[in-house]
Amino acid sequence: MSVPNPPAAPSPQPVPPPMPFADASTSAPKKTNIVALVAMIVAIVGFIFACIPGALIVGWVLLPIAFVLSIVSLFLKGDRKWMGVVGLIVSIVGTIVGFVVFFAVIANAASEAFGDTETTVTQPVEEDAAPTVEEEPADAAEQGTRENPYPLGSQISSTDWTVVMNSHAADGATAVAEGNAFNEPAPAGSHYEIVNYTITYSGAESGTSMEVGVDVVTSAGNVINSFDSIVVLADEFGIDELYNGASATGSRAFLVPDGETVQIRVSPGMFADEVFVQP
Questions:
Q1: Which end of the chain has the least Cβ crowding within 10 Å, N or C?
Q2: CA-to-CA distance for 195 and 90, rounded, in angstroms?
Q3: Do 125 and 151 meet the contact criterion of CB atoms below 8 Å apart?
Q4: CA-only gyration radius of the chain, Å
Q5: DSSP of 25-64, one letter per residue?
Q6: For residues 28-45, b (16+ Cβ closer than 10 Å) or e, as one string?
Q7: Residues 57-75: pLDDT tens digits?
Q8: pTM score of the predicted model
Q9: Domain 121-125+145-278 has CATH 2.60.40.1240
Q10: Mean local confidence (pLDDT), 234-248
């Protein structure tokens, strides 16, 4: 009796090869650091405005914003962080440039507002005096200094003001006593000296007499102004507002220590060069 053959085993099915894993770093698109891009653009625009005198305020608003955004962008994920670095550098440099432009604008405005600060002096000429030419020694001090002051009556001018020192009284006790009943006599060891002068305004807009500086410097080197002692003279120089061509004349009292002489120091304008006048 024959034994039947066992059924043949089914042939195995072919197994498909495994699919390769995709590299996430190569397949995913790179993300752009939007904050860095915005920071760079804002910094560049702010830098441009910071260089324009009439638009400085816009630059000063944009540059700090760009600086903050640049710092934030450096801590965020994303590519192209170099834009944040560029924004940071441009915002810092733009701020420095903005300050330079600002101070240049201020200096130019001050120069236009107060005019030329150069002081010129015209000395009085005696009608009967014959013109003489005198050679000054090589070591002579520049005229207008304490060592070589101008004489009374000199016309001291700047762009906006002209000052003429009319007179000087070494003994001003009578003028102070007659000026006001509440004036007190000079304390022991001191005396009043009176200076009378005229100012003329030649600027475009109005100016006040307080812009002209007049005080005295003692032989000991002390500076004395009229506000050191509160006295009122009959022709006291007040705070006058003057327009082009207008003049004002008045006197001021200075409390000077006994035994000292004085020279008058004059500044024809707030920023004008000062000169000395010999009483």
A1: N
A2: 59
A3: no
A4: 41
A5: HHHSPPPB-HHHHHHHHHHHHHHHHHTSGGGHHHHHHHHH
A6: eeeeebebbbbbbbbbbb
A7: 888 888 889 888 888 888 8
A8: 0.57
A9: yes
A10: 89
